């Protein structure tokens, strides 16, 4: 159970401390008197590790996915906008140039269970693809795709899709024969 702590300036000598628990439960506000603040309104002497709750993390990722990023060769968003737990996502990767994937558009499904981001999402290709890290059912294998196998909480959906695209350009995968374009997994 991790808390997100926010110290907001209210007046010269006062600040409000808000603690937000997982899934958006609000604890506080509590008025702090004569708080000594460092630049940026960070409370001096308050040494704690703050973990951003899952829902906030996914909202940040959704916002970034909706706004677009990078060169447009990878994108992602919610599969079902009514999914309040934000579990089902879709992704798109445009195949890298100078490979057998050049110009192809690949669709993926990402599933962030309730342990995300502590645990990696599960990823499947919807579009058929031949990659060394993808099994015969389209699942990205965490044993063969090191970013999933060596998952860190800081990794994002954007980074995962970008790394999968990079894997398409690897010497092992860049010339692998591919299924006909437009075919999908069942």
Automatic annotation (TrEMBL):
Keywords: Ubl conjugation pathway
Species of provenance: Volvox reticuliferus
Residue intervals of the UBC core domain: 53-186
Region (Disordered): 166-186
Gene3D superfamilies assigned to the protein according to its UniProt record, in alphabetical order: Ubiquitin Conjugating Enzyme (3.10.110.10)
Pfam family for this entry, one: UQ_con
Database matches in PANTHER family: UBIQUITIN-CONJUGATING ENZYME E2
CDD domains: UEV_UBE2V
Compositional bias (Polar residues): 169-186
Entry annotated with the keyword Manganese: no
The keyword Repressor is annotated on this UniProt entry: no
Protein name in the entry: UBC core domain-containing protein
